[in-house]
Amino acid sequence: MPGATLTRRAVNRATLARQHLLERTRATALQEIAHLGGMQAQAPLAPYVGLWTRLYDFAPADLSALYEQRQVVRLALMRGTIHLATAEDALAWRPLVEPVIVRGTESAFAKHYDGLDRAALAATACELTEQAPRTFAELGALLAERFPGRDPAALAQAARAHVPLVQIPPRGLWGASGRIAHTTARAWLGRDVHQRPDLDAMLLRYLAAFGPATVMDAQAWSGLTRLREVFDKLRPDLYVAAGESGAELFDLPDAPRPDPDTPAPARFLPEYDNLLFSHADRTRVNPAAHRIPLFPGNGAALGYYLLDGVWAGLWRTERPRTGRAASAPAQITLTLQHFAKPTAAARDQLTDEGLRLLALLAPDAPSPEIRFAPAPAP
Fold first, then answer.
1. Whose CA is closest to 181, among 189, 194, 190, 172?
2. In the sheet that 182-184 helps form, which strands lie side by side, from edge to edge?
3. DSSP characters for 178-240?
4. pLDDT at position 314 over 90
5. How far apart (Å, rounded) are the C-alpha atoms in residues 239 and 269?
6. What is the dihedral of CA 111, 114, 120, 126, to 10 degrees?
7. Rounded-to-integer distance, Cα 244 and Cα 247, Å
8. How many other C-beta atoms can be found within 10 angstroms of the C-beta atom of residue 345?
9. What are residue 336's DSSP bridge partners?
10. How far is C-alpha 255 from the geometric centre of its chain's CA atoms?
């Protein structure tokens, strides 16, 4: 049975502490990506903002270098979404979450897979993407030649589900652009995925970054199901408490659980930041149950901000499209859209942190501007 009872605010501060959102950490970018258990990255530049908000002295070149050195990769992982992960975590965790990716893909494209030899398709996809990196359009067209009469897009998605495909640079590099081309993790990293992956270790890493957490929270983060028996096996070595609802909260015994009255500074998060998506019960950071918009951005122009540790509004940058010389630095405006009008002290916090964000996103912009406005109705 659980011991202590943790209030929602206590759970909030504990989660913020290990997310390095109470105080920035001096870890390297690689160490932080590992600590966070990867970073959601379907918006390719989102991890740059996510690392900036958590690290002292982060520079975008730090992460770009990790991509180019093949120390980190972007691939489908938790919940079947694109994540930035260390090479080691990508190889260790992809086999564990592959059933989640396969299940989602089979559900979405079921009518296209009747009678399809999945093993043969996976082998063919490996061959094609190891010959040369392929976009999904290219891969689908080539697969359709080998599996005639089937939808190319559905075949490409089946390949993504059954093969650990990584997106290679320049996709994801700061200040660069390029097509979304894929090759296998084996070809890119020189190693294959783990043959004996360790689910226990992955869940302990989840608690280190997102705890205290319930079994349902861990399932929401990973997309996996039936994790109760795993937590029951780990229980003797875990700290167990009760949340305000009475649900069991599991945690690492030595993980930080600061005083609930610890101040939480204003922080800016990128779109899709895992802090907002990695618990079944999101009230620890979203107590008002605001609907989370899924922006179609690149991760460096839109996002969310926290006040006193909870999601309090949206941020958006805007640049003029015309009216300046081609060689002149572009003006940039940061608009903060609040759910509830911030106090004067909160506005000061947001302004200070907002100017730091603009220094990352547009270091040469003259006279960056910050505006406040009500958030749009859902």
1. 172
2. 39-40, 82-86, 72-76, 165-167, 182-184
3. ----EEEHHHHHSSPPPSS--HHHHHHHHHHHH-SB-HHHHHHHH-----HHHHHHHGGGSEE
4. yes
5. 29
6. 10
7. 7
8. 9
9. 315, 372
10. 21
Helical segments of the chain, H only: 8-18, 29-35, 46-52, 60-68, 87-108, 118-131, 136-146, 152-162, 185-189, 199-210, 215-222, 228-234, 344-361
In this structure, are residues 11 and 264 in contact, taking their beta carbons and an 8 Å threshold?
no
Asked whether the beta carbons of 88 and 72 are under 8 A apart, the reply is: no
Strands 310-318 and 333-338: antiparallel
Q: How many CA atoms lie within 13 A of 277 on its CB side?
A: 21
For residue 115, give both structure tokens.
């009678």
Looking at the DSSP assignment, which residues form a beta bridge with residue 372?
A: 336
How is residue 67 written in tokens?
Answer: 């991509």
For helices 199-210 and 8-18, the axis angle rounded to 10 degrees is 110
Q: How far apart are the C-alpha atoms of 243 and 364, rounded to whole Å?
A: 47
Q: In this structure, what are the phi and psi dihedrals at residue 253, rounded to the nearest 5 degrees?
A: -55, -40
Check whether 146 has a pLDDT greater than 90. Answer: yes
Length of the chain in residues, anyone?
378
Taking alpha carbons only, the member of 213, 221, 215 closest to residue 80 is 221
Tokens of 138: 């290219």
pLDDT of 348-359, one tens digit each? Answer: 999 999 999 999
Kindly state the tokens that stand for 167.
């997106």
Give the span between the Cα atoms of 357 and 76, in whole angstroms.
28
Return the structure tokens found at 301.
Answer: 């122009």
CA distance 302 to 94: 29
242-259 pLDDT tens trace: 999 899 999 999 999 999
How far the first Cα of the chain sits from its last, in Å, is: 40
Structure letter (DSSP) for residue 147: S
CB 147, CB 119: distance < 8 Å: no
- 156: Cβ–Cβ under 8 A, 6 or more apart, which residues? 136, 137, 139, 140, 143
